[in-house]
Amino acid sequence: MIDIHTHILPGIDDGAADQAAAVEAARRLEAIGVTHVVATPHVIPGVYANDRATILAQVTHLQAALDAAGIRVCVLPGAEYYVEPELPEKFDRGMLLTLNDRGRHLLVELPATGVPSYVDQVFFDLLVRGVTPVLAHPERNRELAARPAKVYRLLQKGVLIQVTAGSLVGLFGRDVRKAAELFIGHRWVQFIASDLHGPGGRLAALGEALPKLTALLGREGALKLFEENPRRVLDGAPPVEIGRQKEYRPPGGWFSRLIGRMSAGN
Ligand SMILES: [Fe+2]
Fold first, then answer.
1. What pLDDT, on a 0 to 100 scale, did the predictor assign at position 266?
2. 104 C-alpha vs ligand 1 centroid, how far in Å?
3. Can you list the domains of the chain with their CATH numbers?
4. What's the gap in Å between 266 CA and the centre of ligand 1?
5. Tens digits of per-residue pLDDT, 109-140?
6. What is the rounded CA–CA span in Å between residue 227 and residue 176?
7. Cα of 155 from ligand 1 centre, angstroms
8. 120, 157 in Cβ contact below 8 A?
């Protein structure tokens, strides 16, 4: 497996507390069959000001520690950017770290509750630069979980979707799990990742999510989300689809469908 969303670098965000925790996380990842991890520390203006140089240096440092410990996990550079209007301009100035630094896929997170009005423009401006936003765990965003049609609309514009393994196994509650299942069932999701913050629960969920996903998509489909698509992203290549993406139709009769369509347009 390849994990494209981890907070494994120690001490630079709310992830692994220290190097021992980071090494232990890598040891556990190796034990569940993970060969590569992308280190994606938070970059949040005013909170975590991690820049390219810091992240690249930390990746090299952690890899040396894993090599010394005999852990066969490859650590690759990346970051998780909190969405802000300046992202496209920062990309132009060479400030951003795309996944595996290929200049192709940018991991972006939204606020936990809503979707800021400038998100569409930011994603559009990235896409025209040849950078595809990978939206981190939309199932954990309250607005997107409640209005799945908005996720479909983002997909139609070219955004990719990463669901967190822990969401599928219920770590964040029933509503988040249901949203994750719905997104996957509609073939909207290209990646599953751990979003681990240390050697604890979210890491183990990666292993537990594989059989759940196999039940939803079959073995071949599940492996595309855990292995094939992450590998393609490491090479800067577009992911493969799992099947035809289905349009979201709210449950109920024509009236609730109409309401759903109206609220999706908000
Ligand atoms: Fe994250």
1. 47
2. 19
3. 2-264 (3.20.20.140)
4. 27
5. 999 899 999 999 999 999 999 999 999 999 99
6. 23
7. 20
8. yes
